[in-house]
């Protein structure tokens, strides 16, 4: 059974947590004891209904304020597939949480309040979805009950969003725009007569039919080495294997590979997983690879197929989201972590900061918390990264403050 990873986003009070709670409730994924606790918590808040948003708002501050602060991961399943939903915050000051929560998503759900239409956070979250190149986008026009299920209001917001799609990553793609009321469960899991003018399918029906290539044939083959295995026993006296997770593409026994940093080549002798011999390994598989030749490979090296090798670059241009209270200024040195590698990197220049509501680039000499912009970096050693647009799995990095060890930025190689 495959797993579909979803991220929810939208402005404050657009109903993200309630939507997730409704999905869990209508798919009967809530246990009896949790349902009783939810009812009791709703009564303590003075509500005359069961507040499904409390399922995901687990922090005390979240329940007190009725907002999402941290990223919550929710798991549920249907007979067809399993789901992992990242419930991300809507406030501007938690933009960094939204970026990290959406970084592994295959579907982006952007919620819009039917009363308010497209607002600033809609632009911001749409921009982030485009930046991360999340394959599927679903726009949920929520709280239709508060506009009397007005078809004209739905059409107006749809038209506004279609304008937003022009020239973006999603132009020409199958973008679903679904009217719903998550509070009353209308058009979330089941269709409703109150939105009978909508001829599309409910949200869950669409999610159930989304397809994706789990084997990842499109992207070049990349295997970052996490650990070199040398058992100290008689049975595996000469064993030398390289453990890691295939980040993209696939590898096959007998196939030639090249080791980056030094360019040495060999052929794959075996691919093993829990003492089981495999003919091949695909994106997402954690395996041990052994080679026919004794070549110099250690933790942090990248194995690739000779036909498509990433260029080792010491100068990198990247789009980043700044995630630290202390501002970014040119000339500062950080640790750039790409896979298992940590390399010193110096910020040479801030090339521009994006105003997400207009998609315009502004010239600035510094970047503040939650700013998104482009920078140029110079690294102490070559970085074997792909362009993010070509291979997202090998095109990202983080910047780490070398003194506090805090993650200060996430970057996407251009």
UniProtKB/TrEMBL annotation:
- Any idea of its EC number? 2.7.7.4
Q: Name one GO molecular function term.
A: nucleotidyltransferase activity
Q: Name one Pfam family in it.
A: GTP-eEF1A_C
Entries under InterPro entries matching the protein: CysN_GTP-bd, CysN_II, CysN_NoDQ_III, G_TR_CS, GTP-eEF1A_C, P-loop_NTPase, SO4_adenylTrfase_lsu, T_Tr_GTP-bd_dom
Q: Which residues form the Tr-type G domain?
A: 1-215
Name of the protein in its database record: sulfate adenylyltransferase
Which UniProt keywords are listed? ATP-binding, GTP-binding, Nucleotide-binding, Nucleotidyltransferase, Transferase
Source domain of life is Bacteria
């Amino acid at each position: 059974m495959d797993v579909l990873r979803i991220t929810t986003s939208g402005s404050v009070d657009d109903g993200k947590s309630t939507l997730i709670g409704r999905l869990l409730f209508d798919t009967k994924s809530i246990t009896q004891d949790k349902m009783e606790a939810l009812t009791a918590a709703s009564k303590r808040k003075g509500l005359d209904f069961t507040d499904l948003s409390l399922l995901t708002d687990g922090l005390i501050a979240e329940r007190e304020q009725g907002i999402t602060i941290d990223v919550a991961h929710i798991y549920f399943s249907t007979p067809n597939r399993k789901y992992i939903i990242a419930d991300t915050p809507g406030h501007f000051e938690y933009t960094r949480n939204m970026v990290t929560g959406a970084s592994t998503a295959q579907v982006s759900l952007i919620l819009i309040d039917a009363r308010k239409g497209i607002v600033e956070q809609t632009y911001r979250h749409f921009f982030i979805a485009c930046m991360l190149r999340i394959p599927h986008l679903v726009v949920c026009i929520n709280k239709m009950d508060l506009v009397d299920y007005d078809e004209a209001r739905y059409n107006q917001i749809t038209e506004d969003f279609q304008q937003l799609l022009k020239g973006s990553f999603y132009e020409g793609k199958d973008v679903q725009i679904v009217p719903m009321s998550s509070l009353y469960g209308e058009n979330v899991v089941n269709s409703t007569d109150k939105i009978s003018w909508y001829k599309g399918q409910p949200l869950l029906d669409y999610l159930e039919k989304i397809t994706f290539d789990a084997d990842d044939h499109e992207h070049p083959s990349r295997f970052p080495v996490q650990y070199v295995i040398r058992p100290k026993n008689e049975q595996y006296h000469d064993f030398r294997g390289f453990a890691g997770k295939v980040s993209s593409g696939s590898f096959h026994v007998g196939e030639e590979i090249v080791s980056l940093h030094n360019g040495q080549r060999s052929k794959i002798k075996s691919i093993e997983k829990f003492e089981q011999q495999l003919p091949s390994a695909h994106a997402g598989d954690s395996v041990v690879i052994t080679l026919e030749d004794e070549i110099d490979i250690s933790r942090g090296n990248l194995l690739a197929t000779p036909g498509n090798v990433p260029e080792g670059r010491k100068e990198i241009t990247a789009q980043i989201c700044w995630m630290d209270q202390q501002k970014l200024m040119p000339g500062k040195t950080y640790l750039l972590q790409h896979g298992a590698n940590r390399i010193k990197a110096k910020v040479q220049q801030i090339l521009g900061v994006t105003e997400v509501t207009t998609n315009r680039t502004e010239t600035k000499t510094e970047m503040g918390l939650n700013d998104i912009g482009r920078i140029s970096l110079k690294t102490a050693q070559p970085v074997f990264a792909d362009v993010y647009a070509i291979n997202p799995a090998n095109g990202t990095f983080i910047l780490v403050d070398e003194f506090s060890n805090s993650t200060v930025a996430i970057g996407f190689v251009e």
